[in-house]
Amino acid sequence: MGLPPSFLSVKSKATIAHPNKKWAARFHLTVTHRVRLANLRALCQDNLMKIGAFDVIEPLPELRDAHVISILHPWIDAGNVGTLSLVRLEQHFGAQQIAHLTTPGVFFDFTRYRPVTKMVDGKRTLTIPNTTVSLARQSDGPDILLCRVYEPHSFADAYIDSIHELFKALKVKRHTRLGGMWARCRTRVPYS
Predict the structure, then answer these.
(1) What is the mean pLDDT of residues 5-33?
(2) Could you tell me which residues come within 8 angstroms of residue 189 by beta carbon, excluding any fewer than 6 positions away?
(3) Where are the domains of the chain?
């Protein structure tokens, strides 16, 4: 039994009380919670299990020679090289999210990694930055886990241990990190 399609965006509605009922009826605040454990567990109680600080779909998928491609945001992500590459790989392989941090606020300072609010189909949504793992299956060759890792601001040891524990549970064989650093580049190289 897989996760419901709402796994990536669990929505809760709250109506704003306002004297103008017509305005209040149009203004339903819809907040997308990627990481609110209570809401997520209420919808998919039997489909999640805990590995370290991560919520992971259950049962764990059988992986074929799993390889991880990860990015470390924002430190080794100059010009969003890693982020854009990972997004392209997710789109190319049709990757599905299989794990995310249960409570990213434990590890991240949201004054640095800002939650993003935007209007989608006339409803306000909130996206909270989170470390996620997506699964991309290939017809031949190894399965690929695409991992978005944010640099932690606190409890780094527990964060790293949780990632390591997750990778052990998924029987990862190889790990590759994508990214880029700002550096001076010479456009003219003298030849000898």
Answers:
(1) 38
(2) none
(3) 47-178
